[in-house]
C-alpha cells in the first residue's frame, strides 16, 4: 500500500515540476495534459487507498525519512493514510483532477498557460502534504505551501493591480493567522514533547485545562486564517481576482478546507475543551449568517459564490465546534463537490460574457448555455440543501446537531442562513440564466464552453447529486473509527419530520421567492438611483459591513504612516546614516590621503620612513605591554575596572 | 682610558643609520641615494659584527657577510638601471622621476 501512498502524494509534485520546465516558453499543450494525467494517477491511488481502508485494512503509516533530529526533538517526514486523511485525499484529488482538465480549456488563450499548471499542481501537492502528514510540522509545511501557491495563483494575472493586491492581502492575512498556528504548535511541543499526532494527543489527556485551552485557541487562529473566518475573512472574496479554476480549487479542495481539517484532526484536543468548541461553533454560526447577508446584494457572481463558501465554512465550524467532527468533514466533502461545480459553471459564464461578472447584465443566458445552466442550477439546489441532493444530508445534519445539543440560538441562526443561502444562490441563477435578455443590448455574444470542459464537470454533478444518500452510511462507518461516533437522532419522530419538512419548505419558499423576484420583467442594471440601493441596509451589505473600509482606515493607513515614520526617522536617519557614514569615512580618507601618491620618489621614501617609525613604535609599545601585563592587570583591578 | 665596549659600537651604528636615513630622505640625486643606502646597510653590519663578537657567536658575522654580498649585488643592479636612466633622460634627479604619479 505504501507505493500508492507515495504515488498519491508525489504525482502532483512531479506534474508541477514538469509544467515548470516549460514555465518560460509559450503555451505547450503537454504542460497541461501531463499534470492532469499525473493528478489522475494520484486520484486513482487515493481510490485504491480508500478501498483498502474501507475494507477494514490497516492504517497506512510510513516514515519516509528523518527531517530533524536534535536532542529530544525528532521530526520525521512521516505520512499517514487513515480514515480522515483518506477522505480529504479523495476530495482533494478528485476536485483537483477535474479542475485541471477544466483549466486546460479555460486557460486556452492565456499566455502563461504553462506557469499556471506548474502552480496549480504545486498547490495540490502542498494540500496533499497538509492532509497526509502525521505530525504538526509536516502539516505546517503544507500549510505554508498552500499559502504560497495561493499567493501565486490569486495574483496570477500580476499585470492587474487589483490581482496583486488581492494576492498580497490573502498572503498577509494568512501570515497573521499562521503566527497563531505556529504558537499553537510550539505550545504543543513544549507541553507534550512531541509533534506526532498520536503521541501528542495521547499526552494532552494529562495536561491541565488552561494549557489545553491556549493550545486550542492558537491552533484555531491558524484555522481561522486559512478558512477565512471572521475577522480574517476579507481575503476570500478578494481572492476572486484569480482565474476561476483557482477559485474552484481554493474553495473546494486545497485551501479553505484546511482549517476545518485541522479542527477535525485535532478533535481529541477540542473534545477536552468544550468551551473553546462552543466558541468555534458560535463563531461558525455567526460567519454563516454574516457571509450569507453579504451575498444577498453582491453584484459579482464569483463573489456571491465566495460568500456562500464562507457561509458554508461557518456551518462546518459550527458542527466541528459542537463535537460533530464527522458531520463537519461530511459537509466539507459534499460542499467541495457542488462548490467546485458552481465555480466552474461560473467560469463558463464568465468566459461567455467576456469576463463580465455582473449578473444584472446577463439574463436569459440559459438559451445559449444549456449545459452550464443545468449544472449550476443543480449545484445550487445541492447547496440549498434540497432532498435528495448532497447538501440536504450534510446541512440538515448540522442543523440537527445544533438542535439536539440544545443550542437553539445557533440552530435558528443556521436555519435562517439556510433560507438566505437558497435565496442568494437562486438570485444569481435567475439573473444569469432566466428572465429577459439584457446582454445582447450591451453587445455580448455568449457561447457555450468547450464540450470537454462540460464533460470534465459532469463527475462533480453526479457526486453533487448522489454524495448525500450514497456515501453517508459507508462514510460514517469508516470515519467514526477515528472520530467520536455520535449519531444524531431526534428522539421524537414528529419533531424530526416537522423539522425536516419545515426546513425543506422554508428553503423551497426562498428559492421561489428568488425566482419570482429576479425573473420578473423590467429588471435593469442597477445604476444607484433606486430607493433600495440608497437604503442603509443595502449600503451596509454591499460595502461588506464596512469591514474592508475599517481595515483600510484604521489598520492599513495607521500602519502605513507608522512605516513612513520608521522609514524616514529610523531607517533613513539611523540605519542608512550609519552605513553611509562608514562608507563616507572610507571615501574621505581616500580622498584626503590620495595626495600622498604624488609620484615623487623622494616623498614616497619619506612616507616609508614615517610608516616604519610608526610600526616600530607600535612594536615597542606592544612589546612593553606584554612584558608588563601582570603589572597592568593589578593596576587596572585596583582602579576597579 | 675608556674601554671601548658594545654600547659604543651600537651608538656608532645608530648614528650611521640615522645619517643614512636622513640621506635617503633628503637627497635628490639617485647616486647619493645609493650612498645613503650603503651607509645604512653598513651601520647594520657594524651592529651585527659587534653583537656577534659580544656573544661569541659567529652567526651575526656570517649575517654581515650576507648583507655585504646582497648589498653588492643590489648596487650592481641599481647602478646598471641608473646608467640606463641617465642615458635616456640625461639626468638622475629624483624629482623628475614621477611617471608613477597616481
Characterize the largest beta sheet of chain A: strand count, sense, and whether it forms a barrel.
2 strands, antiparallel
Q: How many DSSP-defined strands of chain B? A: 0
Arithmetic mean pLDDT of chain A? 88
Helical stretch tally of chain A:
25
What value does the Rg of chain A take, in angstroms? 31 Å
Give the proportion of residues in helices of chain B: over 70%
Structural class, from helix and strand content of chain B? Answer: mainly alpha
First-to-last CA distance of chain B: 58 Å
Order the strands across the largest sheet of chain A as they lie in space. Answer: 1-2
What Rg of chain B do the Cα atoms give? 17 Å
Summarize the structure.
The complex is a heterodimer of chains A (641) and B (102). Chain A has 641 residues and is mainly α. Chain A has helices spanning 2-21, 30-54, 83-106, 113-132, 136-154, 161-192, 197-204, 209-226, 234-238, 244-254, 257-265, 267-272, 274-297, 301-321, 325-352, 370-384, 390-404, 408-433, 451-479, 493-519, 531-534, 536-542, 547-593, 601-627, 629-638; strands spanning 60-70, 73-81.
Amino acid at each position: 500500500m505504501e507505493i500508492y501512498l507515495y504515488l498519491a502524494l508525489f504525482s502532483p509534485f512531479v506534474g508541477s515540476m514538469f509544467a515548470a520546465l516549460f514555465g518560460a516558453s509559450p503555451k505547450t499543450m503537454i504542460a497541461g495534459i501531463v499534470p492532469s494525467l499525473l493528478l489522475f494517477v494520484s486520484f486513482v491511488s487515493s481510490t485504491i487507498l480508500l478501498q483498502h481502508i474501507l475494507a477494514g485494512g490497516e492504517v497506512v503509516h510510513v516514515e519516509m525519512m528523518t527531517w530533524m533530529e536534535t536532542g529530544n526533538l525528532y521530526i520525521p517526514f512521516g505520512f499517514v493514510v487513515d480514515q480522515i486523511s483518506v477522505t480529504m485525499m479523495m476530495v482533494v484529488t478528485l476536485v483537483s483532477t477535474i479542475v485541471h482538465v477544466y483549466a486546460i480549456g479555460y486557460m486556452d488563450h492565456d499566455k502563461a498557460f504553462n506557469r499556471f499548471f506548474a502552480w496549480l499542481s504545486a498547490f495540490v501537492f502542498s494540500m496533499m502534504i497538509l492532509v497526509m502528514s502525521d505530525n504538526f510540522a509536516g502539516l505546517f509545511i503544507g500549510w505554508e505551501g498552500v499559502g504560497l501557491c495561493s499567493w501565486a495563483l490569486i495574483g496570477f494575472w500580476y499585470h492587474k493591480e487589483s490581482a496583486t493586491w488581492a494576492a498580497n492581502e490573502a498572503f498577509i492575512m494568512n501570515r497573521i493567522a499562521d503566527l497563531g498556528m505556529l504558537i499553537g504548535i510550539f505550545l504543543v511541543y513544549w507541553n507534550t514533547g512531541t509533534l506526532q499526532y498520536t503521541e501528542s494527543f495521547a499526552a494532552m489527556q494529562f495536561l491541565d485545562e488552561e494549557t489545553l485551552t491556549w493550545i486550542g485557541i492558537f491552533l484555531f487562529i491558524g484555522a481561522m486564517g486559512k478558512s477565512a473566518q471572521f475577522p480574517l475573512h476579507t481575503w476570500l472574496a478578494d481572492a476572486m481576482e484569480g482565474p476561476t479554476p483557482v477559485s474552484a480549487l481554493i474553495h473546494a479542495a486545497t485551501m479553505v478546507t484546511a482549517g476545518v481539517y485541522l479542527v477535525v484532526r485535532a478533535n481529541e484536543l477540542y473534545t477536552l475543551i468544550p468551551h473553546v468548541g462552543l466558541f468555534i461553533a458560535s463563531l461558525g454560526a455567526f460567519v454563516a449568517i454574516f457571509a450569507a447577508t453579504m451575498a444577498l446584494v453582491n453584484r459579482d457572481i464569483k463573489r456571491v459564490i465566495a460568500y456562500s463558501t464562507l457561509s458554508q465554512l461557518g456551518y462546518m465550524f459550527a458542527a466541528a465546534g459542537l463535537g460533530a467532527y464527522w458531520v463537519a468533514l461530511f459537509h466539507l466533502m459534499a460542499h467541495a463537490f457542488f462548490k467546485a461545480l458552481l465555480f466552474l459553471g461560473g467560469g463558463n459564464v464568465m468566459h461567455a460574457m467576456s469576463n463580465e461578472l455582473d449578473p444584472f447584465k446577463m439574463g436569459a443566458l440559459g438559451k445559449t448555455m444549456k449545459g452550464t445552466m443545468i449544472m449550476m442550477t443543480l449545484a445550487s439546489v445541492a447547496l440549498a440543501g434540497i432532498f435528495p441532493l448532497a447538501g440536504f444530508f450534510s446541512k440538515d445534519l448540522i442543523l440537527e446537531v445544533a438542535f439536539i445539543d440544545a443550542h437553539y440560538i445557533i440552530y435558528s441562526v443556521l436555519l435562517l442562513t439556510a433560507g438566505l443561502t437558497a435565496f442568494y444562490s437562486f438570485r444569481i441563477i435567475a439573473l444569469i440564466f432566466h428572465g429577459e435578455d439584457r446582454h445582447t443590448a450591451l453587445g455580448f455574444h455568449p457561447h457555450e464552453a468547450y464540450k470537454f470542459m462540460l464533460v470534465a464537470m459532469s463527475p462533480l454533478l453526479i457526486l453533487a447529486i448522489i454524495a448525500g444518500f450514497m456515501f453517508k452510511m459507508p462514510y460514517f462507518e469508516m470515519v467514526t473509527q477515528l472520530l467520536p461516533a455520535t449519531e444524531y437522532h431526534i428522539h421524537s419522530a414528529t419533531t424530526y419530520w416537522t423539522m425536516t419538512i419545515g426546513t425543506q419548505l422554508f428553503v423551497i419558499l426562498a428559492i421561489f421567492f428568488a425566482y419570482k423576484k429576479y425573473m420578473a420583467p423590467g429588471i435593469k442594471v442597477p445604476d444607484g438611483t433606486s430607493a433600495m440601493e440608497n437604503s442603509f441596509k443595502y449600503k451596509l451589505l454591499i460595502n461588506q459591513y464596512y469591514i474592508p473600509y475599517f481595515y483600510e482606515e484604521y489598520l492599513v493607513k495607521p500602519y502605513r504612516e507608522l512605516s513612513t515614520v520608521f522609514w524616514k526617522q529610523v531607517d533613513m536617519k539611523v540605519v542608512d546614516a550609519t552605513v553611509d557614514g562608514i562608507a563616507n569615512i572610507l571615501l574621505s580618507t581616500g580622498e584626503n590621503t590620495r595626495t600622498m601618491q604624488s609620484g615623487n620618489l623622494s616623498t614616497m621614501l619619506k612616507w616609508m620612513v614615517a610608516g616604519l617609525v610608526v610600526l616600530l613604535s607600535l612594536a615597542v609599545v606592544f612589546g612593553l605591554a606584554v612584558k608588563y601585563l601582570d603589572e597592568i592587570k593589578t593596576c587596572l583591578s585596583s582602579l576597579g575596572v | 682610558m675608556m674601554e671601548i665596549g658594545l654600547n659604543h659600537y651600537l651608538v656608532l651604528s645608530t648614528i650611521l643609520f640615522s645619517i643614512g636615513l636622513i640621506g635617503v630622505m633628503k637627497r635628490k640625486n639617485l647616486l647619493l641615494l645609493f650612498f645613503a643606502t650603503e651607509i645604512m646597510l653598513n651601520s647594520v653590519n657594524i651592529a651585527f659584527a659587534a653583537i656577534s663578537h659580544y656573544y661569541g657567536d659567529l652567526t651575526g658575522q656570517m649575517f654581515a657577510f650576507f648583507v655585504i654580498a646582497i648589498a653588492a649585488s643590489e648596487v650592481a643592479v641599481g647602478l646598471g638601471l641608473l646608467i640606463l636612466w641617465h642615458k635616456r633622460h640625461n639626468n638622475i634627479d629624483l624629482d623628475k622621476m614621477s611617471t608613477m604619479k597616481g
